User: What shape does this take?
Amino acid sequence: MSQILAVDYGKARCGLAATDDMQIIASGLQTVPTKEIFIFLKKYLLENRVEQIVVGLPTDLKGNLNEVEIDILKFIEKFKSQFPLVEVARFDERFTSKMASFAISQSGKTKKKREEKGLIDKVSATIILQNFLEQKQK
Assistant: This one.
């Protein structure tokens, strides 16, 4: 089998997570500046077998799309043109940043570490991917 990669896309940073090759466990990879996301993806996809990426779908409580969605759609379009063999899925990312902050606070990290935006983005991508895997199994 091959991996599934999750992207928590943001204007400044993208949090990334990936499954194991059996697509059982989601693990945080890293946070990459958005302007460098395609540099990271080219290298990662050369070194790993990835069959699908999951990109967060940013909605508010009422289900309305967030303004970053315009940038996400451009990202997806460019991704599909550069990596046409990799399937793209979307997954609701509502509350993932709050869940990530809570999970980090429960982990015993220092206050400074807990407030690190890059860590929150990476954990958010992991939550998106884990929720996607659970939904896929139903």
